[in-house]
Structures are given as C-alpha cells and as structure tokens.
Write a structure and sequence with these properties.
Ribosomal Protein L13p, Chain: A; alpha/beta
C-alpha cells in the first residue's frame, strides 16, 4: 500500500448553504391559547416562531418567521409573586415623568400589553425585529378575526 494515493476532486466535496430570502420563505399561521400558560415560557416560544427559528432554513438576517395569534391573553399566569411584585415602567422623558404599574393592574386594564411587551423584548432591536413584531396578534378573549387564514394550533 506504500505509494497508494487517492485523488479526490474538490468539486465533489463542495456543498453550499441554502439561505432564505423573501421569495423562498413560506409563512404559516398559528394560534396559541394563553389559558393557564406561564407568561415567560409561552412568550419565549412565540418569539422563536416569530423569528423563524423553528424552520430548517432559518437565516438570521431574513424575516422567515410565521404569523402568531394569541387568544385568552387575560388568562395567563405568573409564577411566584410576580403578579403583585412585577412592575411595568413608562418614562415620558420629562422630570417626574416615570409611571409604574403593577402586573395585576395592567392585566386588568390592557391584558394584551403584558404579552406584547414580553415578546417584543425577546425580538431583535432593529427594523427586522419591528417587522417580526407586526406578525403578532394578541386578543384578550377567545375570538379572533383571522379564521380566513386557517391557523393551526401551536402546541408547546
């Protein structure tokens, strides 16, 4: 076997990675029921679907995520004492313009805002993240106007 050489062509070893673009991305519609779901765990999985990380052709610089509809946002739960101890802050930019609201009060007033803020914080902070966030639809009740898209149920 001394002096035996195999000749391998480089063209046989060349593989290319397929990158997604707007023409090749296939978007699906999913519906999630928020009843008795923990906010952080549910939102992290929704954010991954909005980014497209559940797909084999995920590309970081392309919006290849799916549309997500969340129903029953008023029935989500927090673990521990977060329901009373978690505060959401808004700052107007002026002196004395800091407003705080407990999670208990915000979920009574605007239950969609709790999930929207959690999911938005898990998306990229650029124009791509803003585009991904527009594919999220959150509703307090169990009805939604997107039945024409025939969404599939997203199980966790």
């Amino acid at each position: 076997m001394a002096g035996f050489k195999t000749k391998i062509k480089m063209s046989n070893l060349h593989f290319t990675t397929k990158h997604a673009n707007e023409a090749t991305v296939q978007r699906n519609w999913y519906v999630v029921d928020g009843t008795n779901q923990t906010v952080g765990r549910m939102c992290s999985r929704i954010a991954a679907v909005l980014r497209g990380k559940n797909k084999a052709y995920y590309t970081p610089h392309v919006d290849c995520g799916d549309f997500v509809i969340v129903t029953n946002a008023d029935k989500v739960k927090f673990t521990g004492n977060k329901f009373d101890q978690k505060f959401y802050q808004n700052f107007s930019g002026y002196p004395g313009g800091l407003k705080e609201e407990a999670a208990r009060d915000l979920i009574k007033r605007r239950p969609e805002a709790v999930l929207e803020r959690a999911i938005k914080g898990m998306l990229p902070k650029n124009r791509l993240g803003r585009k991904m966030f527009k594919k999220l639809f959150v509703y307090a009740g169990d009805q939604h106007p997107h039945s024409a898209q025939q969404p599939k149920e997203l199980k966790f």
